Amino acid sequence: MPTLAAALLSALKDHGAREIFGIPGDFVLPLYKVIEDSNILPNFTLSHEPAVGFAADASARYRGGLGVAVVTYGAGAFNVVNAIAGAYAERSPVVVVAGAPGARERLSGFLLHHQARTIDTQLAVFREITCDQAVLTDPLTAPAQIARVLRSAREMSLPVYLEFPRDMVGVEVEPVVPLPPRAADPEALAECVEEILARINAASAPVAVVDVEIRRYGVEERIAALARKLNIPLVTTFMGRGLLEQADDVVSGTYLGAAGDGAITRLVDDADLLLMLGVILSDTNFALSNRAPDPRRTIMASSREVQIGHHTYRDMPLADLVAGLEARAKPRPASAPQTKARAVYPRGLPADAAPIQPSDIATAINDLFDRHGKMPMTADIGDCLFTAMEIDNTALAAPGYYAGMGFGVPAGIGVAATGLRPLILVGDGAFQMTGWELGNCRRYGLDPIVVLFNNCSWEMLRVFQPESRFNDLDDWHFAEVAASIGGAGERVTTRAELTAALERAVARRG
Description:
- The chain has 510 residues and is an alpha/beta fold.
- Helix content is 38%, strand content 14%.
């Protein structure tokens, strides 16, 4: 029989995990030894636990499988809480594997180092930001617990928590047998599909709106095919920017309400039916809408539920719904005004001495993509994320709803670990938090391109509190530090310098 550690690692792989991100610590050292010796999954160690969580989150977003974050008890696990909270808010299935004291330590009567309040305080905290949890103390029940928790992560597309006492690592157990996915009731699914298609066929100006769940559940290609078959325009939300990057004929643009492209805003606001697939009704997606979502003209499919008007179909997986719609839909004629609405992204940056504005960066990157092909991207919050909205639709991971700083660089490392070369957009404030994780790239042969917006300021906060001096930051001259952490840095201030530097960055590998 396998050991519990080997059974867990094999189960993670069977459920779609492809790498592990973590930081070793005393309570998780025995497990880390197995991770290293077994080679069941590649292992990437970073420098601080928040980055571990962000990297695992981005890996899950790009892979469409599970991200894995391995941390030690207490000091390690509590450090990763913010990143996992963001993953929960944005529907990203990250598995937190936390080391823990063994049975004798739990019963010793001593307060244990890294312990906060009680031995179980860590579990209590993670119950708030994960959809399922298990403490693996019993070798007879541990395999079933692992199977249940990992199925929850996949089905709900939310983080889960596994607590692994260090004295359980070498205990022999039965293998973990994956549980079958819970499918929709066939009769309920058929009824739901027919009702949705009837509403679409009765509408004169329907629009599809898609968000992050369509990638989490791997249904992007099916949704593109459905949109073509139904002849309805499709837009992404702010959070869903970067979805369907291989379906340029389908995506009209990104809906940003009053702040966005006027043609896209009118397309959505004037629709008499909104088919929302995998959409999170957050303020970042819809606070700037000219019209509040009206249940009478909205079909909402997310979180394994479908709401049509004022009634709900429960236990309705998005993948089952989309497959049913695609199978039963019949081609319908397109509405000419709708099909013409399409966002246009800036190109042709002048190679002059004008100082760089955020939109210039978007234009320069669009020009770069035209010359070399699109690159996957990650972004932090602030000017850099809004700049991403002006860049051609390409795969993007960003904390668009949770809006936690520090995501961009470690997320880019997580994407690079999947074998891609990402372009990272990050501000100087966020880089001060987690940008130094780039020093780990040389060990693993990763070479992301980082565009660092250095305005010596927490600029987004200044918008809300312009008179405050606490938004002022010093100039850290980041480019000069790049060589010491294994990279190459250039500081540019003009549009001509920016274009040339981007071209050199693409050509330079390593």
